[in-house]
Amino acid sequence: MTDRLFEAASAAMAKAHAPYSRFPVGAAILAADGTVHSGCNIEVVSFPEGWCAETSAIAHMVMAGGSRQIAEVAVVAEKLVACSPCGGCRQRLAEFSGPGTRVHLCDAATGVVETVTMGELLPHSFATDALGEAKG
Prior knowledge:
Elements: H1 2-13, E1 25-31, E2 36-40, H2 53-64, E3 70-77, H3 87-95, E4 102-107, E5 111-117, H4 118-121
Parallel strand pairs: 3-4
Antiparallel strand pairs: 1-2, 1-3, 4-5
């Protein structure tokens, strides 16, 4: 499955719109129902008002209407080996996953180079249950 996620993240990275940073990123999510959703970073001139690859992938998962639970994630950047999600994306991913969810950090040329858990990436995430039951 990691190969499939890496391939989906790489294909998404190829579609990135990164004219300002010139730092294309792709992400792919394996949802709990077995579907794969990918996304790329999309920049606008008003930095930092663009979308990260992980955010785009989450949006695709939600819009697909199936599972909203992330089982695994792969992230790849053209110019950085083992690129991890930014702080904001760590929280976004945490909202749709659990502390044991695997996050695969990839090299654009070779694939997965490191796997960590959401709990390792964001040990003190905001707990959504503290806000009451989510609607939606």
